[in-house]
Every structure is written in structure tokens, then in C-alpha cells.
Amino acid sequence: MKKWLRIFFLVTCLIGLTSIVRIQAHKREGVIRTAALQDKSGGDVKNITSHQPEDLQAAMTLKVPAGDTVIALENQEHAQFVREEITDLKPDKDITAEIDQEGRLLLNNDQDQAQKVEVVVPVKVADPLLMDELQLELQVVDKNETYGLATLAVKADSDKGAATTTENDNNSNHDNDKPATDNNNSNNNSSSKVTSSSKSAAKKKPSRKSQSAKQRSRSTKSKTPTTSSSKSASKEAADDDADADAAPATKISRMSQAVDPADRLTGSAIDIYRGQVQIGSWSDEMTIGGTLKEEPGVELHKKSAGVNGSGVGSYYKNENYKTHYYISYQQKDNAASYAIAFKKDTSLGGKTINVYYPDVGAYTTSSGSEKLDKKMGAIIEISNLVYSPKLTGGKDAYIDFSSNFYSGIIYNGIESFDLDITFTNEDGTRALKFPEAEEKTYRSYFTFGSLNGNVPGDNEWAGTKSGREGILSKPTTIEEHAGGWYKGVGEGVYMQYDNGEYLPHMGENQWGDFLGSPNYEKGAVSFPLVGKKHEFMLRSDAGFTWQSFSTGSIIPLAPEKPVKTVDRSKKFGIENNDLHGATINRDEDDIDSFNYTVYQKTYNIPDESIAKPNRITLTDTLPDGMSTTLESIRLYNTDGQVLTDFVPEELRETVAPEELGTIAPGDRGKVTIDGQKVTYELSDKEIEKLDFNGGYFAFQITIKIDDDFVGTFKNKANVRFYSDKDYDWNNDTNEVVTHLNRGLTLRKIGDNRWNPADTERLKDVVFNIVGGDDQRRIETNEDGEIVLEKMNSKEVYTFTEEVPEGYVSPQKFTLAYNENDNRWEITSGSAQIEITNDKNSQVITVKNQVERGDYQFKKIDGTDDTQLAGAEFIIRSKSGKYLKFDDDGKMSGTVDTPEEATRLKSFAKETTKVTGLPYGKYKLIEAKAPDGYVVGATHKFTVSKDSGTKVMDIKNDPYSLPITGGRGIIWFIGLGLILTLSALALWRTHPRGG
């Protein structure tokens, strides 16, 4: 018997446990099915850095029940959802998602049943993360459900420190045979600083003098690693003093550095979205390092441009490089440059030059930012130096560095060298990592321009060791060679006439060797910037070369859409647009002309691109009722000055000087006027003269209005940028509208649906007019107006409106002319119709009211129908607008977010009533439940004519234990308990051994 009782007891326990297991199974069928942390590309993340960690995203698969669901990210001190609109729901099944101001994910399922959906939410991680691992957890609010995300390992940043020795540091260890380390650097790497005035001098145009063509040759020597100098600080200081006494004309310095530029990079790399060298960036405190400067006979010359260019000069004479700032560099007061000079007997094997520039441009780490918001530095390393065979005895070889990184370098007596560039953050401690290509397109490039081949055998070269193909313009004067080299073979024209104009440079093998030339890109090659270190090569077959540095694209860029204005004056500026949308009564305003102006924004040369479009064309089809002539057309430069005019010579003395351009008649573009169509194709000279600096240049056309024209002028133009079939952009301007009328206008307005205090003009509203034999059916235009033409003052007119949808009661009125007062009058109609009293410009205004209704509700207990106070609600329209109400419950407007919406409170004895809602569908969303109750579901309601007569009951349930599973689970629980109790009873009635 005892054996059977044991078996019975075990069976009943198993049945009871099965019930519990089923309950737990039901509990696991929650909202969050799967969730994982990813990087921005969608890849799985297993670890993250402690400082400047990358932004992540949470990819979730959810089963969203009907109504509202809220998911919160716990541990918000470590990570938060990014508050922004979420649009990438997959699939979109009437489910909306957004992040509220508390950083919670709000989901709304508009269907009546649960739906499965995938959603990706951006996550911002705290900086710094002072922990070994990061564990984040998702929680479904108001539901007993949590979901733990995978634990991420937190990696500390590199502990590699910067060298900190100073001029008074005695730890140089120069007598030891130990290799130099980061903490064992000697003092001979500290740099004297350049202090620059912020006062700017006028920029000088690059002027290529005939000292020799610029060229480069390929080097086959391997790069040798940088070695540490062994000279002590005390000896270096003594050398500095001796050099200063011996060279009164210029500062000759050994330039001892606390930290060699090559040793600055102590932090982890920064992943960036885009970086750019900028022509206006200056490094007033440069650092010069490397091993070459420690060789005997090597000199470092520091020069200044002085004030107003007093220290600027050319390098025709070999000695000038020691004392002058180069004439073709970018100019400003006290701009600095440094020249490292050495004789031909100086050994170059394994020697390097390192230079740190604190400010060369800007970068951004954000894919959504157009603005480059962080300052960018650069470290360059020059190695594998090879003497030029054209360096004669007694002459110096040297490399000259401008403090303006865009201005680049001059190298003389050197045939070739390797040039490695690492862009950095502002303090130079962290390298910038440029991204790989996306769909074969790179975000940043490095461009070498002015690669000449003017003289046979004297060519200039640039190359890359990255293995990536260089990018050339179409057409180009650059030849691709083996080993990553690109050779300039064209004629770069830089010479000028006495009047400052450049010699002809548009031939097949020619290009203008100056910024702003319409074909400057023909002599350039661009290389993609990818990763941290960018390895290039330079070569000159001529022996002397100036090479600028740029990240500007070698291809012209897509222009922004042009902007059109209409104005009485000829003043330059987008703000001059006073006739757009204006209504002019020609009976009182003798206007007979005005000006259409098309503003085209430029990109920045050389920061964004070095290339201009080959052709720029304006096309403008004028409306009927207006005309123009050739002399009424002008071209403005970005500084607001007229560049081109077409005023005949015999009339020029009658025109104000500021309306005359500087382009010679033979260099003007081609203008064609064919009926109403005006076409203006710019000439090469005009494109050359246009300043591409990020500002606007403009086409302006003065038009004449026909004497008898009454109506509306609508106009837009088109601007085309063209270089070849791959770079061809046609962009239309915005449309400008000007109304001209005489006497009488009908204007239709209605109160604003969502802001009742305001009105708006109504288009496409139909009126039927009857007066004598005159019967017409007219319709309001885009501005809600109709110009009433050919009205017979002898007739009485009846106007009948066809009411627009959503508005109440059509309007009907009669109109007659009062000959005594010389004006039209309303002789019958409602108070919603008005007419102005100005007899020369009368306007009839017909106003309609939006159909509006009411809604009322009360809050009750879901168990006993007791009316509840303390609940708070907000209302959302079908279009997603949140409503605001005044103190009387009348709708006063809408807002974009639920936090700004008016909260409607429930009362214990009164109903909550709102009025003035436009007819339509709405949602009543409970924002706060009464004390002791859970937040209720969202309620849908419709406002109509009779909606305000009913009171909606909104039920709430008090807090209770969570119910899991279906109703059938009760039977399993009951059966399990009965069997368990029965087993215990039987056990007790049969004692042991019975």
C-alpha cells in the first residue's frame, strides 16, 4: 500500500508542477522577443572603449499589443535611447514609434490585435565608461517584463604617454647605448613657437615665376624607421645661442623639441565621417622634428611674412629662402614658414623630417552633420629623400614649410621623397581614421594640383603607395604610370599680362595654373583618404617645385538649388524680394518694370573642390505680358559687384558706374532672347572671374510690363552646371508670384482648422456670378483670390458660393456700383462678407467657418462605475497633432509633442468637456491614472454634429496582481491542488508500515 501511495503522490506533484511550468511559459511570451546591441552599420558589438565610445543601436523584434506600449532602457546613467523620430519600422503595420523626453520608446499599435514588428533605436553611450563591463536591460513599463542585453566588455584607452622632457631635463641618457623610448626622448625635439597677429593682409594671387618648372621623380629606396637623437639638452641650448649670434638676418635654430611630432600620437584613433583641409587655417605654433635636422651642417631657418607683406619675397635667388616668406603662399601678417637646408654632402639615407601642424582644417564624426565642427591637425613625415641631379655645387638643398598647410611646401635640389600624412585631433594626440568607400565613393580625398609638364623632361609627379587608383578629371593632362605614380604632361599657364589677365590657357594640352581657372583640375590628381596614415610620393624632374596640399575634390560638385527673387530695385541680395506675393493695383501704382534676380550659391574652392564647372547656363521663360532687352541683363559676382553688363558703348555714359561690369565686350557670355525665352551661357572668362567662395553670384533681368496687363505673374528659372555627361546638373529655382490688378478683387478666407484664432486663404473655391447677360463660374487661385475683370457698373451681380468641404453654410451676396461714391458696395449678404472702402483698390472678403463639434467624457471605476477624479488626458488628431485648450475647454491650437499638449483632468462629480474640435477622428490618451489605478487604454472617438450630446465613460481598473495565461489555466491549478491535498490526506490516514 505504501508503494502505491508514493506513486500517487509523485504523479499529483508532477501535474501541479506542469501547471506552474505552463504559467511561466505564458510569462515568457512577452513584448520583447529578441534584442541586441549593434554598431551603426548593423554589426554585432562585443566590446566598447571607455573613452569616446562609439554610438550604438538596439535592434529589437517586438510583438506589440493593441494600444500603447512603453519600453524603457534601464541604467540610463550609462546609456540612453536617442530622442528622434523612428521611421524604419519593418514592416510598417499602423504602428508608430518615438522616443519621449524621458528617453523611453513609445509604441502605438492602431490595430485591434498584437503585431510583430522590427525596430532599430539609436543608443548614446556615456563618456567615459568607468567600468569593466556594460550590462544594459530593457523593461516594458507597467508590465512585469524585462530583457537583459548581452554584456559588453569595456576596454580602457591606450596608456601610452607622451614624452614630457623639457629644456632643463637632465634625463637625456645620451651616454647610454639604450634605444630611445617614449619616456626617454632628449630635448633636441622642442620647437620655438610662432606668434602670429590676427590682422590679415590682402591675399596675393598665386603667380608662377619662371624660376623653373615644378617636378618630381620616383624613389626606389625603402623607408627607414625614425631613430631618436642622442644630443643633450644643454648642448642644444648652447647651439641655439651660438646660431642666434652668428645669423642676424634670420633665425637659425636647431629647434629642440619637448615631443617629436612622431611621438605625439598617444591616444586611440578617432573614427570620423569626413575631414577637410581649409585654406583659411593657420598653424601659428608648428613643431619640427625627425632625424635629418640633427645631422652636421643642417640648418633650420624661421621666417616671417612681416606686417603688410614686408617679409614676403620670391625664391629666385638661392639665399632668399633663408629670410623671406614665399610670395605664392597664402598671406597674412606675420605668417611663418620654416626651411630645413642642407648641402649635397649631407647623408640622407634613413633620415626623416617630421612636422606637426595644430590647425589644418576641420572634421566631423557625425554622418548627419553638414558642418565640420572639430578642428583638425596634421603630422607629416618626409623620408626616402633623393638629391636632384640638377643640384650644383655650392647650392643648398632645402624644404620650406608654410604655417598655412594648404600652401604646402617648396622643395629645391631634391628629386623625390616619400610624404606620409596623419591627420589628428586638435592637440595632435589622436589620429583620425577616415572611412572606407561606400558604393565605390569616398568621402574625403587628398589632391595634388599644378602638376606641370611645361618643358620636355621637366615633369612634376605625385603618387601613392596605398594601391588605390588616383582620380583624374575628364579631360586631363596627367598620365598614369607604374608604381602608383602620376605624371604631369600638360602646360600649366601662370604668366599674366600687365593688366593682370592670364595668357590664353584653354588649349587642348593647356590649363590655367591658378585657383579659379575653369580647367585647373586638368593638372591635378586626387587620392582617396582611408584609414589613419596616408602614404604619398612626390617627385620633380626640374629641381625646384612648389606643391600645395588640398582635400578639395578634383571634380566639380553638385550645386545647391538657385533662389529667385522679384524686386523693384537692382540691389544685390537675396533679402531684396519685396514684390514676391505682392498685389499691385495698377490704377494707383504706375509701376511699369521690375527685376528678376537668380542667385546661385557656389561651393568653396579649394576647400571643397578645386574644379569649376566647364559651362554655366541660365534659362528663364518670362510670363506673357512682360519683355526684356539685352542691355537689361547683368551678371553679379559673389561680392555683389557687377561682373558683366551688355550696355551698348554709346549708352554707357548714361548708366551709373556701379551698374557697369569689368568683363571686356569680347569676353562676355552669349545671351539669346527668343520670344519669352531668355538664355545666358557664361563664357570661359566669366567662369574664371566668378569667385567660388561659398557665396552667391547672380543673374539679373530687368523686365518691362505691358501697359494693359492685369493678372498674376508666376515665374521660375533654371541654372545648369555642366562639365561632362557625368557632371550635368539642371536645377529649377523657386517660383515667385506677383499680382497686378485694377480695382476689384474677391478674396476667400476661412478660419484655421487647428488654430481658430487665425484665418487662412482658401484656394479652388468656386463662385457662380450672375449679372444681366454676364454669367460666369470662377475659382480662387493659389492665394485664395480672384481678380474681377470686366465688371459692368450698370449691372447688379449676385455671387453664390459652392461651400468647401469641412466648412459651414455657403455664402451668397449681391454687389452693385455706387456712382455717387465711385465704389462697389455689398447690397445684401451675411456678416461674413466685407468690402474695403478704397475706391481704387477694393477687396471683397468672404469668410467661412470650419465645422466644429464638442466631446465630453467622465472617468469611472471599472468595477463599480464610481466616478473618479485625478486622471489626466491628452487628445491627438488623426493627422498626429496634439491639441491645446484654453481654461474653458475650447480648442486653441495644436503642438507637435505630447509633452506640450493640454492635460484634461477628470472630476468626481462633473464631466470633462472640450469644444471647438473640427469634425473628424481623434484619440483620447490617458497620461496619468487616478491614485490607486492603472493607466487605461487609448480611446478613439469621432467629433460630429451630435457628438457633444453624449458622455463617454472611460473605465479604469484598480491595481491587482498580474494575470498570466488564459482562463483555462485555473482548471489546471485547481486540479493540481486537489490531487496534492488528496495525496497528503491518504498519507496521513495510513501511518508508516500500515
From TrEMBL:
Segments forming domain SpaA-like prealbumin fold: 853-957
Biased composition (Low complexity): 181-200, 222-232
Keywords in alphabetical order: Membrane, Transmembrane, Transmembrane helix
Region (Disordered): 157-259
UniProt-listed InterPro entries: Ig-like_fold, SpaA_PFL_dom_1
Residue ranges of the TM segments: 968-987
Membrane is among the record's keywords: yes
Domain of life per record: Bacteria
Transmembrane keyword on record: yes
This protein's name: SpaA-like prealbumin fold domain-containing protein
